[in-house]
Specification:
Layout (H helix, E strand, L loop, with lengths): L1 H8 L7 E5 L6 H7 L5 E4 L2 H11 L5 E3 L6 H9 L4 E4 L2 H13 L4 E8 L9 E2 L9 E2 L3 H8 L5 E7 L3 E2 L4 H22 L5 E3 L17 H12 L4 E6 L1 H4 L5 E11 L2 E6 L8 H5 L5 E4 L12 E10 L8 E12 L3 E4 L25 E2 L2 E2 L3
Parallel strand pairs: 1-2, 1-11, 2-3, 3-4, 4-5, 5-7, 5-8, 8-10, 10-11, 13-15
Antiparallel strand pairs: 6-9, 12-13, 12-17, 14-17, 15-16, 18-19
Bound molecules: pyridoxal-5'-phosphate (PLP).
């Protein structure tokens, strides 16, 4: 993962900052491993602020975004020296200003923009259409006007996180360039001191092709002519940092036929790893054979057939891959889901049905890392 971050950041122009979006995987061991390699951490909640501070310490840089903010969040930001808040509504601007003024503080902010659109396709879009995120493009002049009343806020620039899992590096560079031009245009028009533009995350991975990689060099090359003299550019990527470096392993507990289709029942499921069901995709996996069979009856097995991998929950939604051909699978074998590091455990409903949580093992250079 550290090598991955080094390779992701090496082609970026000097002065570009690369934050890790903690929401993709907030395990403290992972945060500590990443800390020396990233500019800082992007968090979405007070809980993530505490998680980063506890895991990595008081001096690591933190920036914070997210669509729904409370007064407690703002107090937490000030108490834990979060560097900047990405503000997503006019009410949130006034709320942040009121809390900062009461505390006698000046809070640096970016305005998060929801583009007018349309925007290029990716797996998820947060902007360019009707979503709960950001301030819609048409309302940015209103937000800038509200800033005049907000003496406890310091405007530093604009924030865009428009798409997630964009595999088109050239298209992503074009989107970022357009966002940058928009930010410069607003700054010029309204006489703003534009210090920072945060272009979000969204650099893609391909769950259907484990060897495919986002073309960071091409992305950086395409964007470079747009960067010029200031503002400072920040990225905050999650998936591309964490996805590749974890596997989720489950034991096959049972095999059955139902209405002509073959199912493997796993000791695990979407309560540990909800990503495939939330994306409705077949997550990549391989079968790891295990020879041990302790029972006197014949070992159930399927060979050369399409199977559906289902979990241990009492819902037909608990499926991690559908009708994928396998050469052989037996009760007692292991299924290894690859690319499980981002938005896996962290987005899952761990305690549904009170099944046991999986062991979580962390390796560094082949050695187990202590908890
Ligand atoms: C505001 C914000 N920034 C960054 C990210 C990270 O995005 P990704 O994991 O696609 O890089 C997200 C993810 O949803 C986000 O909401």
């Amino acid at each position: 993962m550290q090598r991955q971050v080094r390779d992701l950041t090496a082609p970026l122009p000097p002065g570009t900052e690369f934050f890790y979006a903690v929401k993709a995987n907030n395990d403290p061991r992972l945060l500590r491993a990443l800390a020396p390699w990233v500019s800082g951490f992007e968090v979405a909640s007070s809980g993530e602020v505490l998680r980063v501070r506890e895991a990595v310490g008081p001096s690591v840089r933190i920036v914070m975004g997210g669509p729904a903010r409370t007064e407690d969040d703002i107090r937490m930001i000030l108490a834990h020296r979060v560097e900047r808040l990405h503000v997503e509504s006019l009410h949130a601007l006034r709320l942040a200003n009121a809390v900062a003024a009461r505390a006698g503080a000046i809070l640096p902010i970016l305005l998060r923009v929801n583009l007018a659109g349309p925007v290029p396709g990716a797996t998820l879009t947060m902007g360019g259409g009707a979503t709960q995120f950001g301030i819609e493009q048409a309302s940015i002049p209103d937000a800038i006007a509200v800033l005049d009343e907000c003496g406890a806020l310091r405007f530093e620039g604009f924030h865009f996180h428009t798409v997630s899992n964009n595999r088109d590096a050239a298209g992503h560079a074009a989107l970022c360039a357009a966002e940058l031009r928009l930010a410069r245009g607003w700054a010029q028009e309204h006489g703003l001191d534009l210090r920072t533009v945060n272009l979000g995350g969204g650099w893609g991975v391909d769950y259907a092709d484990l060897d495919w990689r986002f073309d960071v060099a091409g992305f950086a090359r395409a964007l470079a002519p747009e960067l010029g003299q200031g503002p400072r550019i920040q990225f905050e990527c999650g998936r591309i940092v964490a996805a590749y470096h974890a596997a989720y392993l489950c034991e096959v507990l049972d095999l059955k036929l139902s209405h002509g289709r073959a199912f493997a029942l796993l000791r695990g499921g979407t309560h540990h790893f909800r990503l495939p069901s939330s994306w409705s995709h077949d997550h990549p996996f391989r079968i790891i054979p295990r020879d041990r069979w302790p029972h006197p009856w014949p070992r159930p097995e399927f060979t050369d057939r399409e199977i559906t991998l289902a979990g241990e929950l009492c819902t037909p939604k608990d499926v991690l891959a559908r009708e994928v051909t396998v050469q052989r699978v037996r009760v007692g074998d292991l299924v290894c889901f690859q690319m499980a590091g981002a938005y896996g455990w962290d987005i899952s409903h761990h305690d549904f049905l009170c099944h046991a949580h999986p062991d979580r093992l962390f390796l560094s250079e082949g050695e187990r890392v202590a908890a």
